[in-house]
Structures are given as structure tokens and as C-alpha cells.
């Protein structure tokens, strides 16, 4: 299996109406907006999509709507992970994966497994998965970091594990993975703010939060880098610097939902325990957008 998740991946939000029900009309409009403005693939039903606060029925309906609107135009990476290995394995075995191109699976959270535990967890998943797997390392959320050594070990032993979404924030670790990985395995940025240096080091794309609101601008930066045009790409990266921080200061996806609300695309609604970003944060982001000339 080869990794097909290159370029700008959108960590797709779930838009809600004022009554907290899913706004499927806004969702369709968002997906088409992303496709018209440079999205190369979608990552669905993960953290930015507020998946922990969705019912199984809602997840199934969201998946069906997204597949219908995308209609094979770009790949779809769907989240399936957790901290109960047996439950994740069972979910993979019983899910209808038609129309989905890969599985994103996170390091187990809260349990804080050892490196051997991480290896065994992903081994169990690899042994049953019908689709390519993208690992997801995000120690700030799960409480444990999967080391470069463990990542390379997993990648070397399981050919259907094709990439990692690296969100450790550790560029030295990213370099270590890229240097030692097997040929079929690739690195995807899981951090908007580090996408520029990660692609310069050999990453093949990003699963982006800011891309929800600004796919055209962010995809342009990535494409410039792929062509070796680092100076204009760096200029775009630096224009985003303050926005990167503000997007996450009140939690994710509060920041990107505030941006999309200012753009008139969605209601500024999140499901508890998440709440909308503070007014002052929203105003600062709006001012930055007005001043940007990309």
C-alpha cells in the first residue's frame, strides 16, 4: 500500500445550528468550498470535527454526506481510534469502509502505554485493517509521545501503515523519522504552525485546521514549497504566524469556527464541553484577516 494523502488535507469541522443539530447544508457548502480552493484530501470525524460529541448515527450520516459531496474527487481519511485496542479492532472489522481511502488512528490516550504497548496496539490494528493506516502522534492530547524509534519500527514491520500525522511539535523527532523510515512510509504535518519547516524537511503535506477557513492561501504555501520556491512560501507562512496562535488559544475547533462564522459560512456553535472562542480573540483574528494580502 502507498500513501495517497499528500498536500493540503482538511481536518474537517462539523457545523452545528443554533439548536446544536448538525447543519448539513453548511457542511455541503464547506466541502465544495474546500474542493474549489485547493484541498487535496479530507480528514473526517477526528478532533477538529468534534467527533467525541457526536452519536454513532450522526457519524454515519456525516460520512454518507461527505462521501456523496466529494464523489471521489479527492481521497477521504476517516478517523478510527481509541484507548481500548480490542474495541478499535472490532470497530475496524465491523465498519463499512466503502468510499473511504484510509484510516487515521491515534495513539491511545489516558492509559499512557509504554512504547511496547504502542507497538502492540498498532500491530493489532494493522492486522485487521482493510485500508492503509495513518498513525496519529499528538502527545499534547493523549499524554504519551510515540518516539521516532517506535514509529520507524511500526512502519518497517507493517506495509499497510503508510504514514504518520506528526503533531509532537518536535522537529528533531520529525527529522529522525524522515531519515530512518522505510520507503513506503511518509510524514504528514499535524501542526499548522510547523508545516513550513516540516515540508522543507521532507513531509508530504498537512492535515490542517486553518485550512478549514483559508484553504486557498494555505495550499498555495504548500505548493510553492513543493516546487522549491521557499521564499514566497515563507512569506505566506509568516503572514499566518499570529493567526496560528490565536486559532488554538481558546481550544480547537473554536478558532477556525470563529473564522468561518466571520466569513458567513457557519453558525459559531460548538458542543459542550467546548465553547466558542472569546470575543477579543475573535476580533483579533478578524483584524488579521482584513490586513492580509496574499
Which characteristics define this entry?
46% helix, alpha/beta, TIM Barrel, globular, 294 residues, 13 helices
Describe this protein's structure.
The chain has one domain: Aldolase class I (TIM Barrel). It contains 13 helices and eight strands. It has an eight-stranded parallel sheet with strand order 7-6-5-4-3-2-1-8. α2 links the parallel β2 and β3. α1 packs parallel to α2, α4 packs parallel to α6 and α6 packs parallel to α7. The chain is globular and about 50 Å long.
What is the string of helix and strand elements? EHEHEHEHEHHEHEHEHHHHH
Q: CATH homologous superfamily name? A: Aldolase class I
Biggest sheet strand line-up = 7-6-5-4-3-2-1-8
Provide the β-strand percentage band: 5-15%
Question: Mind describing the biggest β-sheet?
Answer: 8 strands, parallel
Q: What coarse outline follows from CA principal-axis ratios?
A: globular
Number of strands: 8
Radius of gyration: 18 Å
Mean pLDDT, all residues: 97
Number of structural domains: 1
CATH architecture: Alpha-Beta Barrel
- N- to C-terminal separation? 37 Å
Amino acid at each position: 500500500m502507498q500513501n495517497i494523502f499528500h498536500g493540503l488535507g482538511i481536518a474537517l469541522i462539523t457545523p452545528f445550528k443554533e439548536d446544536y443539530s448538525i447543519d448539513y447544508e453548511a457542511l455541503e457548502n464547506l466541502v465544495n468550498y474546500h474542493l474549489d480552493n485547493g484541498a487535496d484530501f479530507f480528514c473526517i470525524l477526528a478532533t477538529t470535527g468534534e467527533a467525541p460529541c457526536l452519536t454513532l448515527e450522526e457519524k454515519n450520516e456525516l460520512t454518507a454526506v461527505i462521501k456523496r459531496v466529494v464523489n471521489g474527487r479527492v481521497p477521504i481519511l476517516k478517523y478510527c481510534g481509541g484507548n481500548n485496542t480490542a474495541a478499535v479492532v472490532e470497530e475496524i472489522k465491523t465498519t463499512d469502509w466503502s468510499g473511504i481511502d484510509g484510516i487515521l488512528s491515534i495513539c491511545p490516550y489516558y492509559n499512557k502505554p509504554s512504547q511496547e504497548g504502542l507497538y502492540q496496539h498498532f500491530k493489532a490494528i494493522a492486522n485487521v485493517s482493510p485500508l492503509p493506516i495513518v498513525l496519529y502522534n499528538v502527545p499534547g492530547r493523549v499524554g504519551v509521545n510515540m518516539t521516532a524509534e517506535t514509529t520507524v519500527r511500526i512502519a518497517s514491520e507493517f506495509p499497510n501503515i503508510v504514514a504518520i500525522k506528526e503533531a509532537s511539535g518536535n522537529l528533531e523527532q520529525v527529522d529522525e523519522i524522515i531519515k530512518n523510515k522505510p520507503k513506503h512510509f511518509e510524514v504528514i504535518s499535524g501542526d499548522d504552525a510547523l508545516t513550513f519547516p516540516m515540508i522543507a524537511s521532507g513531509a508530504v503535506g498537512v492535515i490542517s485546521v486553518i485550512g478549514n477557513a483559508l484553504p486557498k492561501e494555505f495550499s498555495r504555501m504548500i505548493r510553492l514549497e513543493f516546487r522549491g520556491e521557499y521564499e514566497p512560501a515563507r512569506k505566506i507562512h509568516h503572514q499566518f504566524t499570529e493567526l496560528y496562535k490565536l486559532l488554538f488559544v481558546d481550544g480547537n475547533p473554536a478558532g477556525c469556527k470563529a473564522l468561518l462564522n466571520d466569513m458567513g459560512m457557519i453558525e459559531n456553535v460548538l458542543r459542550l464541553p467546548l465553547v466558542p472562542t472569546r470575543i477579543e480573540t475573535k476580533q483579533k483574528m478578524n483584524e488579521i484577516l482584513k490586513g492580509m494580502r496574499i
